Amino acid sequence: MSVTQVEVGVGRLAALLHELPAAGVFVVADERAAAAHPAIGAAVDARTSFVVPSGEEHKTWATAEALLLALDAAGIDRDGLVLGVGGGVTTDLAGFAASLHRRGVGWIAAPTTVVGAVDAALGGKTAVNLGGGKNTVGTFHEPLRVVADPSTLTTLDPRHVRAGLAEVLKTALIAGGEAWDSVLALDLAFDLDDAWTDATVADFGAIIERCLATKLDLVTRDLHDVGPRRTLNLGHTFGHAFEALALPELLHGEAVALGLICAARAANNVSLETTIRERLKAWQLPLSPPPPARDVDALLTEMLRDKKRAGGQHTLIVPHAPGDVRVEEGVKETRIRKALAAVLEG
Ligand code: GLY
């Protein structure tokens, strides 16, 4: 049973910052979010806090150590609370430090990016990157609350918002049914380069709510990621390989977008692959990787390095249809090569 209370809505972050006491609450905030949102900046100034420099390269043991020392210096005790405000890097670090400090203190995740809001903040996976791998050291430590305020998305670079939509597509594909239909029904003319309207913010609120409902269900059934939660890695085994080879050219969500196309090819579901391509194209997400990530052998090597490998065998999350996403073990290399061709051909 998940312990997390999920709250989504405009004004939720301001309400949270208002209701939390000044004493005993330690704020971990993303540098960009604190600069872009006066309420977050004020919370950082008003409380004991730690500002995380923006970027995946800061999700390190060194940053976690500095954060743990700051929690200690602030005198946060077992009754204290850590609030992580920012994208996945910040909430992963905040949750990681909260799980270790005094053998575990409570924490709240307030995601301010699309990827953070629809996926990373919920589910208690906390981590830092160590030894060249992604999320190699971490814990399961569920936040007490996930407070997602879609108005925080309006200051993001549109490219980051689009990249987050790949995670939305992934989650809707896992859920199937109404969640899938609603993502397909999203206005194709939706232009994130224009100023955000209240309607766009509301659309995102609804998207986040749906994704979090799907994820909460999976996490509640399988917190430790040994069963149905593994389907959330859909598109990620391929995606991590593209990401590793193309960094910093590809954002995480862009790599996942490519991974979703490959996963549909692995399922041999032509109409699903076409639908995914059309949707990604409408959101201006990449349909093929940049040159550094076009070498099949290098991609295969990266995929085997992926931490989800089992005894040197490939495990794939395969979308046979919306709502029918399966974990398949012992997948043959020829099948992976054919799936990679989906984004390398042409
Ligand atoms: N991001 C995948 C998971 O939380 O399991």
Describe the structure concisely for a colleague.
By secondary structure, the protein is an alpha/beta fold. It has 14 helices and ten strands. A six-stranded parallel β-sheet has the order 1-8-5-4-2-3, with helices on both faces. It has a two-stranded antiparallel sheet with strand order 6-7. Strands 9-10 form a two-stranded antiparallel sheet.
Describe the structure.
The protein has helices at residues 12-19, 31-36, 38-46, 61-73, 88-100, 114-120, 158-175, 177-184, 198-221, 236-246, 252-266, 270-282, 296-305, 333-344, and strands at residues 5-8, 25-30, 49-52, 81-86, 106-111, 125-130, 133-140, 145-148, 314-321, 324-331. The mean pLDDT is 94. The chain has 346 residues and is of the alpha/beta class. A 6-stranded parallel beta sheet has the order 1-8-5-4-2-3, sandwiched between helices. Helix 5 links the parallel strand 4 and strand 5 (106-111). It folds into 2 domains: 5-155, 3-Layer(aba) Sandwich (Rossmann fold), CATH 3.40.50.1970; 158-185 and 224-344, Dehydroquinate synthase-like, alpha domain (Up-down Bundle). The chain starts with a strand and ends with a helix. The protein contains 14 helices and 10 strands. 48% of the residues lie in helices and 17% in strands. It is globular and about 55 Å long. Bound molecules: glycine. The site of glycine has 6 residues, from loops. Glycine binds at residues 119, 123, 125, 225, 229, 232.
Strand % is 15-25%
Bound molecules: glycine
How many alpha or pi helices? 14
Helix content: 40-55%
Number-wise, the strands total: 10
The largest sheet, given as strand count, sense and whether it forms a barrel, is: 6 strands, parallel
| N-to-C series of helices and strands | EHEHHEHEHEHEEEHHHHHHHEEH
**CATH domain class name of the largest domain:** Alpha Beta
Low-pLDDT stretches? none
* Approximate shape: globular
Overall residue-averaged pLDDT value: 94
Task: Please give the oligomerization state of what you see.
Answer: single chain
Radius of gyration: 19 Å
CATH structural architecture of the largest domain: 3-Layer(aba) Sandwich
Structural class of the secondary elements? alpha/beta
How many structural domains does the protein architecture include? Answer: 2
Distance between the termini: 47 Å
CATH fold-level label of the largest domain: Rossmann fold
Strand order of the largest sheet: 1-8-5-4-2-3
